[in-house]
């Protein structure tokens, strides 16, 4: 992947809005989407829909004991899906230079399949245009997991995504397909209710 972004990639507001509407309608029907995030392309669905989440696991051929990351678009949405957000979390989010996923002790109001055996949940506050707008539009958190079969390398741009993944979702976003800028997965830390920070990645 290189670093070229075409004018077509930028698109216009109407094309972007239609893309968001179609993705949102798919998610609200319980479908899966393939979409650009603040890191790499992801497989997404409604994070409150257990059937949809299980479809993601099946598509990736991933053990359901491995929890998936969830995206939120606002601070209020984060607080709705974490039993307790330690004060230091806001400092870490504000100071982060790269996308930061935080694993909180107790996730709430999401599909149980997204929780680790200890009840923790990995959530990232996204500010990327497509994922943030989509999340706000549906008013719910979004599942975000790398667009690859479990065990295979994560694609660094749309052109590297396995056709099996593309065929396995119900909608593929148009936005971001021509963006060949190299990106990387998010940093991940675990944050306990008492404020203890552990770096995972």
Unreliable residue runs: 2-11
- Identify the strand order in the major beta sheet: 7-1-2-6-3-5-4-8-9
Category from helices, strands and their pairing? alpha/beta
The 3D shape can be described as globular
Percent in helix: 25-40%
Q: In sequence order, what are the helices and strands, one letter per element?
A: HHEEHEHHEEHEHEEE
- C-alpha end-to-end distance: 23 Å
Cα-atom Rg, whole angstroms? 16 Å
Q: Number of helix segments? A: 7
Average of the residue pLDDT scores: 90
User: How many strand elements?
Assistant: 9
Give the topology, please.
Layout: H1 7-10, H2 13-28, E1 33-35, E2 42-44, H3 50-60, E3 69-72, H4 75-80, H5 87-95, E4 100-104, E5 121-125, H6 129-138, E6 142-146, H7 163-168, E7 171-172, E8 187-191, E9 197-199
Parallel strand pairs: 1-7, 3-5, 4-8
Antiparallel strand pairs: 1-2, 2-6, 3-6, 4-5, 8-9
Helix pairs in contact: 2-6
What does this structure look like?
The chain is α/β, with parallel strands linked by helices. Helices cover 31% and strands 17% of the residues. It has a nine-stranded mixed sheet with strand order 7-1-2-6-3-5-4-8-9, with helices on both faces. The radius of gyration is 16 Å and the shape is globular. The protein starts with 6 loop residues before the first helix and ends with a strand.
